[in-house]
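INTERNAL TRANSFER SHEET
From: sequence group
To: structure group
Subject: ABC transporter substrate-binding protein

Please process the attached sequence and return the structure record in the designated field. Keep the field labels unchanged so the import script can parse them.
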Amino acid sequence: MKRPRIAISRLAATAVALAVTATACSGLNSASGEQEFSGQTLTVAGSWTGGEGKNFRKVLDGFSKKTGAKVKFVSSRAQGRDDFALFIRDLRKAGKSPDVAMVPQVGVLQQFAQKGWLEPLPPRVELEAARNFALVWQNYGSVRRIFYGLYFKASHKSTVWYSPKAFEKADVLPPKDYKEMISAGQKLSRAGTPAFSVAGKDAWPLTDWFENIYLAQAGLTNYAKLATNEIGWTDPTVIKALKTFGKLFKSKDMVAGGGTEALRTDLNESVGAVYGKDPKAAMVYEGDFVAGIISGEFNRKVDDDANFFEFPPVGKGKQPPVISGGDAAVAMKDGKNKDMAMSFIEYLASPKAAEIWAKEGGFLSPNINLDLDAYPDETTRKVAKSLVDAGEAVQFDMSDQAPGDFGGTPGQGEWQLLQEFIRDPSDPEKTAQKLDQAAAKAYLDASATGTTG
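Return from structure group:
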């Protein structure tokens, strides 16, 4: 169950470039690219709504302006559908498969590829990806060495957001390691502000908490093995990480209201607990998208009222974790406009497409050639630089790599078990056993139906 790898060397990239030039492939980089799809309609499916949906619409408008194509965007969440895989399945059954799907989980991308639902991306898209993305992002878009998915939007899930005002009041500086972070939390508490607000109601932030602790403590090799089910959840490294995580919830001073309050708190509420009118905590851990919530929901200026530090390493000699997630553009095999779909994905691979959304905020791109000045504030530029500079050290969200029944479904699997754990963190060994049993069943079921990588 090794993670797939795809490598495009400079020589190979040059060869592909010559081949593309020689065959005069259609696409945005060809001479015939101007308005070549005038009068045709491309259907793109994704999960974005609200501000994200509006900003992605601007990216689609950029493609329309370039090619003349009309683009119809279908949002799963706008239709009340939280499970993107089931949403696409139902569209296919109804004969309404989109031309392109913006897949929000690497496990779902692998599932679609193994079911034979996806069209491999052509050499010209591979070339554009090789120009603009670190190899790790091409790997995550590949299944059995075949390139299917172009990661357009990314998230940096190793950022801890804090209130500069609370830190200044308690005379606290951003910590350099996990031990310092706990010490800072205790000092903040003594100054009158609990350290963290945790979004336990949503459950998925708990998986992100665990993954950052695990990667920061157990290292890259163990993380990769656990993410691909090569080691079990009863491994000593897992139990050690659960113990570290559980310590946060043994005191209401470290987490506002303890585990009980965390289970009543969703992501927006956890951010509001730090940046709202009545602050209840000094820090909130989650990804770069917290910046968008701070400015959009709570009308705070990120550069002035908020700042972040990278999730710190756990233990001597350890490296800080860099965990990411993202949305990958894939071409559906039963889509009606395959050539236009490939040109659209080639367009998404360009810095120009990423720049459109970057300027609007609430967006992070793994595109190494996107000018950081495109981002609207200095804080986001710092987060983006941290992600790009991590290069091959980036690790993809572990729960997103797992079968959905274990890593991505409310009320079951890892989500439910970590919620139970923060309510009562007294027995990490028992929690590890339950996680191991749930993971084993999910991977077995997924293997039987051909839905794992």
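Handover comment: The two ends are 7 Å apart (CA to CA). DSSP finds 22 helices and twelve strands in the chain.
Transfer complete.
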